[in-house]
User: Which sequence fits this backbone?
């Protein structure tokens, strides 16, 4: 049996950290988001992304999705701590479900100077099937959705084009288990 | 026309308190709670205890709750009134004490305007309560109060705060009695009502197989109720398994019993810590593998199979990975274990663990609590031993402050029943003990209540002597006066080259005169010949008494597992030297 040292080696902890997406159903009441965010900051957990919206008006429920990093032990402790909060119905690590789906939405505003850039942008937008929200003479706004990984790749590809200016907003991942 | 079925928020609060069978409330008035104080003025079911500072109210409520098993209740005003209770709320959260704190808030329309005595009460207290509320609508007041009491006392108990703006205290609504409220299960989190039979079976199988088992019992056993303690005693007697308790577990099992190894942990008994280190089966009953108990985690009980009974899911596998666990209430689980053993005629008596007890008795021969009492200066350990000898025939409640005296009290005062030992464990709040004694005496008016104190801690909430005097509460404050913050001094001696930086308490008051100025009684013992008389006099006087016991200034608290060391690396006396490598690592820990 292994017990963990009180002298953790930061490098190892970092290596064992993995990304988890937590899906939390809560009573939609004042202060609930502060409770959850406070739990993360107070106990030294990470929030990589966070999303919250009412999902059931009749029963007054919201779903909060949090992307976090941590060792498996830490993630289980986060779930246990979340479930202790009074307004929390359930907290699920989507990675522990046999089947779950994730999506994220991203709006990207790109400013460009010339046709060559425009062509390259159009090309990537087409490959990633992003939707044009607005296009002006030298500004284009795309909406792209999918897994966070897919959006990352799209943004990486855009960054290979020199001389353009990119501004973006991302929703953070949301997910559902089946 | 006034509707007869409608009441003001303040009256609804009082009706709800009555419904919850609250008969005592600790508080301090102020602008934002005046309507509630007005309602208190015109009634007689509720006894209000006026403290001298709000910190006193919250510790008194804790002492009341711990010593009675009921929910402790306090009432404070907005702003400084409530910020003064933050320490006590945190203390109650750490030590799982059920209390409900009612705080006044500025009127709704002034919230957010930086009004006089306004503060973000729910924001400030969110991380130090189990749950809190800001009630903006008087129609929700009844159910909020009833839910607060339910949450405070269910599952793993804890503090709950209800912030009520002044206009809501005046506004009118119907009162909804407790019986008409259906609680939402997901919010109450009462733990499972079903005993995990496979856990029980697995545990009994392991008990049968094991050669070196041990019970490790914590405050959860206390919170499960007196029945848990009864079931535990039955199980220990049946199995002949040694048992050690945490600081908060003291009293769950009779301290004088032959199966008891006493307290474990940083200042625990040698035999208890060694047995934890060498056991092959650990049965954790409501303890949380706190750092004061485990010592260095990578050397904590390396060869044992670990079972953990804890109603709080987040306590499982938090610090130490266990092999089997259950989140069902301790009483229910222990009961099932006992009846499983009985109904299956499992004869555990034959398995009397001769070798294991032989080993433990060898460790006991070290006499880790031995001290040399000379014929002049009082040893603090001896003061507690004599206090125990001279008061154990009474139904005595002991509260403590925090420091060396607290550990000596835990080591030398033996408890035979639960709820008689009230101390600040998790947070370690100096100034806890005296107001806690006020609370314990309110709950147990006919019992002897003693606060075992250090002079430094006692000074932190000394104003509450006036409370004890006003309500004729004959609490005893037994000060082990060494003129030092003893535990700080001890750590400075062991870890910081005896550089006693700011740990000497200079300019102390004359505690005897101080008692007299408060209209309490002061007694003093300067040397060993005066000790017994001082104790007897203190106990015999039916008024608040401060006993100023002058003890050896340089005495240290042993045994000790230094921070960062393992159970088997404990120091038994000042002659034991610490492994220097551990010392450097331990220095950075708390």
Assistant:
């Amino acid at each position: 049996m292994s017990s963990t040292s009180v002298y953790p080696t930061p490098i190892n902890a970092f290596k064992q950290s993995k990304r988890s997406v937590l899906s939390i159903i809560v009573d939609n009441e004042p202060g609930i988001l502060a409770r959850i965010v406070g739990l993360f900051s107070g106990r030294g957990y990470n929030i990589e992304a966070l999303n919250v919206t009412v999902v059931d008006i009749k029963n007054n429920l919201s779903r909060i999705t949090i992307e976090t990093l941590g060792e498996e032990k830490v993630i289980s402790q986060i779930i246990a701590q979340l479930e202790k909060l009074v307004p929390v119905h359930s907290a699920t690590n989507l990675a522990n479900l046999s089947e779950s789906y994730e999506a994220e939405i991203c709006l990207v505003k790109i400013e460009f100077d010339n046709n060559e850039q425009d062509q390259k942008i159009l090309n990537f937008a087409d490959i990633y099937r992003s939707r044009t929200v607005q296009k002006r003479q030298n500004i284009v706004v795309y909406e792209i959705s999918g897994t966070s990984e897919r959006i990352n790749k799209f943004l990486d590809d855009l960054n290979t084009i020199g001389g353009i200016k990119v501004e973006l907003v991302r929703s953070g991942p949301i997910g559902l288990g089946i | 026309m006034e509707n007869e079925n409608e009441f003001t928020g303040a009256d609804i609060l009082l009706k709800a308190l009555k419904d919850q069978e609250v008969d005592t409330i600790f508080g301090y008035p102020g602008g934002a709670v005046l309507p509630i104080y007005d309602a208190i003025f015109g009634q007689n079911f509720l006894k209000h205890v006026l403290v001298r500072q709000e910190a006193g109210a919250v510790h008194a409520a804790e002492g009341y709750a711990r010593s009675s098993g009921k929910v402790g209740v306090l009432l404070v005003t907005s702003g400084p009134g409530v910020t003064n209770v933050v320490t006590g709320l945190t203390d109650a959260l750490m030590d799982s004490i059920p209390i409900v704190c009612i705080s006044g808030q500025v009127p709704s329309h002034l919230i957010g305007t930086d009004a006089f005595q306004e503060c973000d009460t729910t924001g400030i207290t969110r991380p130090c309560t189990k749950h809190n509320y800001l009630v903006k609508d008087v129609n929700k007041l009844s159910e909020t109060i009833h839910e607060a009491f339910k949450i405070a006392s269910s599952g793993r108990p804890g503090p709950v705060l209800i912030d009520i703006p002044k206009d809501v205290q005046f506004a009118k609504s119907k009162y909804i009695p407790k019986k008409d409220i259906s609680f939402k299960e997901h919010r109450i989190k009462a733990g499972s009502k079903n005993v995990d039979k496979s856990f029980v079976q697995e545990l009994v199988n392991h008990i049968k197989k094991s050669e070196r088992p041990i019970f490790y019992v914590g405050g959860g056993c206390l919170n499960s109720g007196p029945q848990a303690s009864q079931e535990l005693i039955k199980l220990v007697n049946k199995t002949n398994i040694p048992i050690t308790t945490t600081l908060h577990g003291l009293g769950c099992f009779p301290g004088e019993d032959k199966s008891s190894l006493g307290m474990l942990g940083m200042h625990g008994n040698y035999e208890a810590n060694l047995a934890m280190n060498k056991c092959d089966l650990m049965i954790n009953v409501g303890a949380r593998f706190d750092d004061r108990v485990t010592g260095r985690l990578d050397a904590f009980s390396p060869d044992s199979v670990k079972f953990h009974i804890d109603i709080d899911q987040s306590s499982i596998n938090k610090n130490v990975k266990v092999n089997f666990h259950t989140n069902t209430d301790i009483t229910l689980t222990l009961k099932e274990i006992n009846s499983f053993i009985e109904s299956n005629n499992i004869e555990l008596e034959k398995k009397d663990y001769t070798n294991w007890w032989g080993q433990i008795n060898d460790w006991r021969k070290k006499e880790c609590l031995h001290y040399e009492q000379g014929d002049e200066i009082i040893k603090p350990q001896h003061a507690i031993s004599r206090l125990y000898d001279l008061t154990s025939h009474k139904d005595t409640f002991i509260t403590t402050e925090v420091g060396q005296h607290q550990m000596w009290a835990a080591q030398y005062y033996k408890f035979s029943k639960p709820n008689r030992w009230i101390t600040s464990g998790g947070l370690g709040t100096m100034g806890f003990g005296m107001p806690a004694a006020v609370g314990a005496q309110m709950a147990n008016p006919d019992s002897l209540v003693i606060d075992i104190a250090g002079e430094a801690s006692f000074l932190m909430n000394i104003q509450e002597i006036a409370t004890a005097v006003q309500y004729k509460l004959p609490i005893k404050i037994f000060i082990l006066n060494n003129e030092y913050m003893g535990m700080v001094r001890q750590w400075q001696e062991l870890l910081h080259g005896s550089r006693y930086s700011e740990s000497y308490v200079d300019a102390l008051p004359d505690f005897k005169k101080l008692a007299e100025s408060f209209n309490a009684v002061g007694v003093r013992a300067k040397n060993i010949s005066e000790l017994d008389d001082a104790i007897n006099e203190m106990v015999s006087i039916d008024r608040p008494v401060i006993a100023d016991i002058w003890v050896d200034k340089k005495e240290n608290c042993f045994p000790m597992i230094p921070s960062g060391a393992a159970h088997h690396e404990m120091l038994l006396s000042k002659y034991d030297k610490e492994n220097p490598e551990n010392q450097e690592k331990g220095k950075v820990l708390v």
Observations:
- Chain B touches chain A at residues 122-123, 126-127, 130-131, 134, 151, 186-187, 189, 291, 296-298, 300-302, 304-306, 312-314, 316-321, 323, 564, 585, 589 (CB under 8 Å).
- The mean pLDDT of chain B is 96.
- Chain B has three domains: 6-176, 197-364, 380-550.
- Chain B is about 40% helix and 15% strand.
